[in-house]
Amino acid sequence: MTLPPGGTVSLGVSRRPPPDDASGELLSRSKLGDGEKTWGFCTSDGGAAGTLKEGDVIGIALDFTDLPMLFFTRGGDPLGEGDELAVMRIRGTVYPAFGVGGGAALSVAFAGDSLAHTPPRKCEALIVGQDMM
């Protein structure tokens, strides 16, 4: 992660834009982490999210079988105090979501071999969702 002064990074998960809104406007209309269509944080939110710095490796873990369902790590360790950045309940299919602003840059990894740290608890590398119908 490259995070210059004034730069922002948003990380989390989001619902896919509905077919009639395939323009991708979903995230531009609602801040990442609104708790309805997106869950996550932005470095401009302050708290633990505001302590991120250039070079940090952030993990996003999603586990529908345990609480919290969504949580974040920095360097393989939990990010934030207690459940500060954790999300207790998410329903339905979600997708990785991230954004940058003010000159910030991200490098992302989804495959197991390219992850910098072992996924926590019962989590694994990202898997491709499949419709069951």
Give an overview in words:
4% of the residues lie in helices and 23% in strands. It is mostly beta strands and 133 residues long. It has one domain (8-114). The strands form two sheets. It has a three-stranded antiparallel beta sheet with strand order 2-1-6, with no helix packed on it. A three-stranded antiparallel beta sheet has the order 3-4-5, with no helix packed on it. It is globular, with a radius of gyration of 15 Å. Residues 1-115 form the B30.2/SPRY domain. This is B30.2/SPRY domain-containing protein. Pfam families: SPRY.
Q: Which structural traits does this protein have?
A:
3-stranded antiparallel beta sheet
| Rounded mean pLDDT score | 79
Oligomer, anyone? single chain
Give the strand tally: 6
Count of discrete structural domains:
1
Poorly predicted parts: 24-30
Distance between the termini: 39 Å
Q: Approximately how much helix is present in the residues?
A: under 10%
Report the total helices. Answer: 1
The largest sheet, given as strand count, sense and whether it forms a barrel, is:
3 strands, antiparallel
Percent strand: 15-25%
Rg over alpha carbons = 15 Å
- Please provide the ordered H/E string of secondary-structure elements: EHEEEEE
Q: Strand sequence of the main sheet, in spatial order?
A: 2-1-6
